[in-house]
């Protein structure tokens, strides 16, 4: 009998490494006896899917009862459900702006990349051409003022020069991105060095907020090294790290060694986080930050901070709630964005972008990071002539398929289209922030040679100043 499963994994170009069962050539995940007998885990149907190569996203029906008893997420799920800040789907958004015709289109709430690709490649040549024209026109209309803003402040020198605890992982490209996020926050007037400032305790009895240190909520915190730099360089006193997954080599150990800093890690999906119900954050002002919040996580974080919260109201009901002072969120992975979660559906609909076109736009964004970025090609204002097609060209595409058209596009053309689509998505988010009365900007916080994922949404309440 073979020592390993004989199921071939084309993506890894090898056989499955799991040992086969009994007299079979296959492991339990790939055995033919499981066909038609598999059911999703009722605790969390997605938690095994992440490791689908070695672990099926389903469980044998005959083993289901035993699996549920020992499911590793069961205890975590039960513990989370009783937390006051857990509210299932509170920040998810709704499909509330679709017409009945669009609602019956058959598209579900969560659209996979393959489904998005099928939407694009299911178009005719002229339809695809018209979509490119609409993208270019929309980009010309709303994406006029996205500035380069690579800001490295003196406060971050200890990290830039590597003068930090050697136990902390140091990668220059990540340090430069983190430093520029904080530099932009300082430049925008929402951050300063708080060493020696008072503990974050909301409004003081004398009404003076000048020396009060805001709390910091990092969304999608991962290992927490953006917060680590913030604490090291600016003297933040209270931090909340929001992350749904567990990580090794976290910054928590180093952060907890700071006697003046209070750290709380919330292991929860941003979609389910009711920030108003976090007891330790009540009565406090806070800054929301996030580095590379993938796809819909940006929309979930924005809605978590702003929706269902009258943060500018000075009513008795709102005084004990956390008060957003400002935010800085570096967006990422726009190809994962979903229509349901997107914050500014109304804005795009008013501009003539349908749900299907939005999904196609998100799929195009992956082309921005496909190219080699040895040169900065993210300035689409100098490159978008690649996408200037005449109406006659559109008519000539009647016999062409989308596959033919895409093959005729070179790498730079595809990258330019991808960057344009990224900017359109983020500008919609910027407009949404402005609707809430925040002073907001969308900037490129690092050159694309450092990272092609270089958009930073930065905003502050108009009555807030860190100095």
Topology:
Elements: E1 8-9, E2 14-15, E3 38-40, E4 58-60, H1 64-70, H2 74-81, H3 100-103, H4 113-121, H5 125-142, E5 147-148, H6 157-160, H7 172-187, E6 215-219, H8 225-234, E7 238-242, H9 252-256, E8 262-266, E9 285-294, H10 296-306, E10 323-332, H11 345-350, H12 355-364, H13 391-396, H14 402-408, H15 411-435, E11 438-444, E12 455-461
Parallel strand pairs: 5-11, 6-7, 6-9, 7-8, 9-10
Antiparallel strand pairs: 1-2, 3-4, 10-12, 11-12
Helix pairs in contact: 4-12, 5-15, 7-8, 12-15
Could you please describe the fold and organization of this structure?
Strand 1 and strand 2 form a beta hairpin. Strands 5-11-12-10-9-6-7-8 form an 8-stranded mixed beta sheet, sandwiched between helices. Strands 1-2 form a two-stranded antiparallel ribbon. About 6% of the residues have low confidence. It is built from 15 helices and 12 strands. It is globular, with a radius of gyration of 24 Å. The chain folds into 2 domains: 31 residues, no CATH class; 385 residues, Rossmann fold (3-Layer(aba) Sandwich). It is 31% helix and 13% strand. It has 467 residues and is α/β, with parallel strands linked by helices. Helix 4 crosses helix 12, helix 5 packs across helix 15 and helix 12 packs across helix 15.
């Amino acid at each position: 009998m073979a020592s390993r499963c004989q199921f071939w994994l084309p993506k890894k170009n090898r056989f499955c490494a799991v040992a086969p069962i009994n007299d079979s050539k296959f492991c339990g995940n790939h055995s033919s006896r499981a066909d038609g007998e598999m059911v999703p885990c009722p605790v969390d149907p997605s938690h095994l899917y992440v490791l689908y190569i070695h672990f099926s996203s389903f469980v044998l029906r005959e083993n289901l009862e035993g699996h549920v008893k020992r499911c590793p997420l069961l205890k975590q799920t039960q513990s989370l459900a009783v937390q006051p800040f857990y509210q299932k789907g509170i920040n998810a958004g709704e499909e509330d702006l679709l017409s009945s015709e669009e609602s019956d289109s058959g598209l579900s709430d969560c659209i996979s990349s393959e489904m998005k690709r099928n939407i694009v490649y299911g178009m005719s040549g002229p339809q695809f051409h018209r979509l490119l024209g609409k993208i270019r026109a929309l980009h010309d209309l709303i994406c006029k003022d996205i500035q380069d803003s690579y800001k490295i402040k003196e406060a971050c020198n200890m990290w830039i020069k590597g003068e930090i605890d050697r136990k902390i992982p140091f990668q220059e490209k990540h340090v430069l991105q983190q430093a520029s996020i904080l530099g932009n926050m300082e430049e925008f007037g929402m951050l300063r060095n708080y060493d020696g400032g008072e503990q974050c305790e909301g409004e003081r009895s004398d009404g003076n907020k000048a020396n009060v240190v805001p709390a910091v909520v990092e969304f999608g915190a991962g290992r927490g090294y953006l917060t680590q730099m913030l604490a090291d360089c600016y003297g933040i006193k209270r931090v909340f790290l929001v992350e749904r997954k567990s990580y090794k080599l976290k910054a928590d150990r180093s952060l907890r060694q700071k006697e003046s800093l209070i750290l709380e890690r919330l292991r929860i999906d941003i979609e389910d986080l009711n920030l108003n119900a976090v007891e330790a954050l009540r009565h406090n002002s806070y800054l929301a930050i996030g580095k590379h919040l993938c796809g819909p996580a940006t929309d979930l974080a924005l809605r978590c901070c702003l929706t269902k919260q009258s943060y500018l109201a000075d009513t008795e009901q709102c005084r004990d709630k956390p008060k957003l002072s400002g935010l800085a969120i570096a967006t990422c992975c726009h190809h994962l964005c979903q229509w349901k979660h997107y914050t500014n559906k109304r804005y795009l609909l008013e501009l003539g972008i349908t749900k299907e076109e939005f999904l196609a736009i998100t799929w195009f964004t992956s082309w921005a990071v496909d190219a080699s970025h040895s040169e900065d090609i993210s300035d689409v204002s100098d490159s978008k002539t690649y996408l200037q097609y005449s109406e006659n060209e559109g008519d000539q595409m009647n016999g062409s398929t989308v596959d033919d058209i895409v093959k005729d596009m070179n790498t730079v053309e595809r990258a330019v289209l991808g960057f344009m689509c990224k900017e359109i998505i983020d500008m919609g988010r910027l407009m949404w922030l402005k609707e809430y009365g925040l002073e907001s900007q969308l900037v490129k916080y690092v050159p694309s040679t450092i990272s092609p994922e270089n958009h930073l949404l930065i905003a502050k309440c108009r009555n807030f100043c860190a100095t």
